[in-house]
Amino acid sequence: MTIWTPTDDGYADLTSHDTFERGAPHNTFARLRREDPLHWTEYAGGQDFWSVTRQADIAAMNKNTAVFSSARGIRMEDQSYEEYLARRTFQETDPPEHSQTRMLLMRAFSRTVMAQYEEDIRALCDEILDVALAKGTFDATKDIARQLPMRMLGRVLGLPEADLPWLVEKGDALIANTDPDFTSHVLDKMDTDEFRMMPFNSPAGAELYGYAKELMAAKETSGDTEGVLHLIRQPAKDGSVISETEFRNFFCLLVAAGNDTTRYSIAAGIQAMCHQPELLGQMQQGGDIWETAPDEVIRWATPALYFRRTALADYEMHGKTIRAGDKVLYWFSSANRDEAVFDDPFRVDLFRTPNRHMSFGQGGPHVCLGMWLARLEVRVLFQELAKRLKSIEPAGPHKFLRSNFVGGIKELPVTVIPA
Q1: H helices of 64-117, where?
Q2: What is the CA radius of gyration of the chain?
Q3: Rounded to whole angstroms, how far apart are CA atoms 58 and 360?
Q4: Cis omega before residue 37 (within 30°)?
Q5: What are residue 418's phi and psi, to 5 degrees?
Q6: Chain-centroid distance, C-alpha 344
Q7: SS3 of 392, please?
Q8: Is the per-residue pLDDT at 195 higher than 70?
Q9: pLDDT at 13
Q10: How far apart are CA 148 and CA 285, in angstroms?
Q11: pTM of the predicted model, to two decimals?
């Protein structure tokens, strides 16, 4: 059984956020993979760009940082060099600078360290599911998917529990800055440049910066020098330290990406359970499925729809030339449905192996720092959810974010019968 319903005619405008309110335009991506895998895309909002849609091409180009740079921005929207310097995080840097920052953080997000949180995650899942499932009918994004990453983020970063709802609200305003349900400062509908030096060109960036400064001052006063936020402020091998601007942007990135990507993976997995009833039984049988299921849920979700690179040199591919200075978009949402790589890609197969999805940016230096935590949260949440269910089905239509950057189900009404 397939759970995908076509939402486009094969010629959707990839530059329009409105297009993605109906979900990713997979008919268009499929056509491009077949007919024009390196597609010149006109963009009324800025510099035109190349769209790369095949998994093999994206995987190869993702490794080639000598030609394809992150140090000009990672989103479709253009920015001046001044704006880039003001907003950038280590995501928007290339090796060796990127590698230096990453080395400071890797041990805090390693598989071994993340595994130590499993009991905490399971206990949180118990609390969250007890409350949500008792309602019978509810919004699974709001009552389940949003809750777990938000509360784990607080534990990983050492943040006060009382602050978490406000932080996630601001994170939503940052990363979903094109959706009027999440911000009044809708990026493509504003004619002001007041916040152009703030992360994501958003007033929420300024608010989070103020919060981060007060938080770190309080930690230093109390002698709290442990955790991720302390690590990022330590000197690199060459003695350099992160600037205040870079720390602000890093904190905003953690709050936004550390919450939203896992949230939308969980929501997509629950949506799949509603439309493929056999998934619940497979989860309840357990066993080896938990080695493969998290990655399949994350493939299905593809929370980051694309990442942008900028060519540093001419590059030949598919009989075309990408010129130095050209903007290039790697469409992960297309790569993760590539028929040449995935059998029956529009069906969730919890036993899928190998699973060469691109949701974590695998194969390149920018592979997701939080991937082990994301996999762990997804696995534990669905283990606990499956134990408690007799059935789950839709209670109304689900709604996607208005964003061509973040792929997420923002409303997911469901009805459950507890086991």
Answers
A1: 81-87, 97-106, 111-115
A2: 21
A3: 12
A4: no
A5: -65, 155
A6: 23
A7: strand
A8: no
A9: 98
A10: 24
A11: 0.92
CA–CA gap between residue 74 and residue 328 (Å, rounded)? 10
Burial 134-150 (b: 16+ CB within 10 A, else e): eeeebbbbbbbbbbbbb
What does the pLDDT look like over 274-322, one tens digit per residue? 999 999 999 999 999 999 999 999 999 999 999 999 999 999 999 999 9
Q: Which domains does the chain have, with CATH numbers?
A: 25-413 (1.10.630.10)
Instruction: Kindly tell me the sign of the dihedral angle through the C-alpha atoms of 91, 96, 101, 104.
Output: positive
Around Cβ 112, how many Cβ atoms within 10 Å?
8
Measured distance between the N- and C-terminal CA atoms of the chain, rounded to whole angstroms:
24
24 Cβ contact list (under 8 Å, min separation 6): 7, 302, 305, 333, 334, 407
Question: Measuring CA to CA, which residue among 350, 316, 308, 302 is closest to residue 47?
Answer: 308
CA separation for the pair 359, 408 (Å, rounded): 13
Give residue 190's pLDDT band: very low, low, confident or very high (50, 70, 90).
Answer: low
Q: Is the dihedral of CA 284, 286, 289, 290 positive or negative?
A: positive
| Residue 406 per-residue DSSP state | B
CA angle 321, 361, 243 (to 5 degrees): 100
Report whether pLDDT(1) > 60: no
CB atoms within 10 A of CB 34: 11
